[in-house]
Specification:
There is one protein chain. The protein is mostly helical. It has one domain. It contains five helices and two strands, in the order E-E-H-H-H-H-H. The chain has helices at about 15-45, 50-60, 65-85, 90-100, 105-110; strands at about 1-5, 5-10. It has a two-stranded antiparallel sheet with strand order 1-2. Helix 1 packs across helix 3 (about 65-85), helix 2 (about 50-60) packs across helix 3 and helix 2 crosses helix 5 (about 105-110). The longest helix is centred in the first third of the chain and has 28 residues, at about 15-45. The N and C termini lie far apart (about 45 Å).
């Protein structure tokens, strides 16, 4: 089964052209996400928690690409919350929230300090 945008399609019910058309409709979302992944990779060297999160994912055995995609998802959630609250992103606030919650990420943050 392939699902996307509220549709479920089976490979058997799709001709080659219909399947390509279905994938083509997903392309704008994929391009936007790829841009987020590229951007997230750049933040590893610029953000303490992003570097720590990346190291945490690699320590779990994730490949580079999987770790960067996970970081991109994390950034998306953070930026979405900033958008909802209509507040600019502030790394010091985020680090304080990690400390308050006792995040396991703190172990990896301490390694980089």
């Amino acid at each position: 089964m392939i699902s996307g945008r509220g549709k479920e399609l089976s490979n058997r019910s799709l001709s080659r052209g219909k399947f390509a058309e279905f994938l083509g409709k997903q392309k704008p979302a994929l391009v936007a996400f790829e841009a987020f992944v590229d951007w997230a990779a750049q933040t590893i060297n610029k953000s303490a928690w992003a570097a720590a999160y990346y190291r945490q994912q690699r320590a779990k055995g994730c490949s580079y690409q999987v770790a960067v995609r996970a970081l991109a998802f994390k950034w998306i959630r953070i930026l979405h919350r900033c958008w909802q609250d209509r507040t600019p992103y502030d790394e010091s606030k985020y680090l304080e929230a990690l400390r308050r919650k006792g995040s396991p990420l703190l172990k990896y943050l301490a390694q980089s300090a």
